[in-house]
Amino acid sequence: ETGVTQTPRHLVMGMTNKKSLKCEQHLGHNAMYWYKQSAKKPLELMFVYNFKEQTENNSVPSRFSPECPNSSHLFLHLHTLQPEDSALYLCASSQDRASGELFFGEGSRLTVL
Amino acid sequence: GESVGLHLPTLSVQEGDNSIINCAYSNSASDYFIWYKQESGKGPQFIIDIRSNMDKRQGQRVTVLLNKTVKHLSLQIAATQPGDSAVYFCAETGGATNKLIFGTGTLLAVQP
Q1: Residues of B in contact with A97 (CB under 8 A)
Q2: Which residue in B45, B104, B105 is closest to A104 by CB distance?
Q3: Which residues of chain B are within 8 Å of residue A92 when distances are taken between CB atoms?
Q4: Cβ–Cβ < 8 Å for A54, A100
Q5: Closest Cα partner for A111 from A5, A17, A4?
Q6: Helices in chain A by DSSP H: which ranges?
Q7: Mutation test of the interface with chain A: which of B36, B50, B97, B100, choosing the one with the most A Cβ atoms within 10 A?
Q8: For A32-48, how does the pLDDT look when each residue is reduced to its tens digit (9 = 90+)?
Q9: Which sign does the torsion angle of CA B41, B44, B48, B54 carry?
Q10: Cβ of B98 and A105 within 8 Å?
Q11: What is chain A's mean pLDDT, rounded?
């Protein structure tokens, strides 16, 4: 138990569907992150939020839309995805943006048909 | 560009042996390095970190060595156990962007 909970753990969606991934952290951290993990590739940083404000968008396509209503919750809204978007999406949190010690959730395995 | 890479994608060791996982980095401005462990079906988990003003740091059964001269990082695991089987990632940060950059990972397989 890392203190970071992601739901759903598995998601299968068609290219025309709209779905959302949810992340919640119980650690009192101020920074939250979305990473994409594909086979045989390094972890790819997608978005960073610090004190609910988006501080980084790593050139992510607009079909991925993050939302951070408060420091404990982070969402990733998905719309008209492509099969190549199939991956493990990891949420993480840290005390603040300067901390390199990230606490990861167990990920949401996304399959786009 | 900046990159973090691993010398060996897969490492197979016998239970009880010591394991050494290596990592090369290219950004000489990086000043903070971290090792993460990712077990099957789980997210990465912080293991140990080291700052650039140190060349060695020890934890419980793990030691991280940093050689800034050749920009090399290693993770040593003593008396490797089956529970150590996982993918190990090194990550670096520092410099102008302060972004955390992950390597591709090394799979450690512990044979009984």
Answers
A1: 98
A2: B45
A3: 43
A4: no
A5: A17
A6: none
A7: B100
A8: 999 999 987 889 999 99
A9: positive
A10: no
A11: 93
Cα–Cα dist B47/B38, whole Å: 10
- Which of A2, A100, A106 is opposite residue B34, by nearest beta carbon? A100
**Average pLDDT score, chain B:** 89
Q: For tokens 């979305």, what's the residue?
A: A34
Distance CA A13, CA A26 (A): 28
Name the residue facing B46 among A42, A102, A107 (closest C-beta).
Answer: A102
Residue A17 neighbours by CB under 8 Å, 6+ apart: A78, A79, A81
DSSP state of B60: S
- List Cα–Cα distances, B68 to A11, B3, B29, in angstroms: 43, 15, 10
Nearest CA in chain A to B90: A42
Q: What is the pLDDT of residue B93?
A: 87
For B56-95, the pLDDT digits (tens) are 999 999 999 999 999 999 999 999 999 999 999 999 987 6
Secondary structure of residue A3 in the 3-state scheme = coil
Q: What's the rounded Cα separation, in Å, for the pair A13 and A5? A: 21
**Cβ pair B98:A102 closer than 8 A:** no
Instruction: Copy the structure tokens of residue A32.
Output: 């939250």
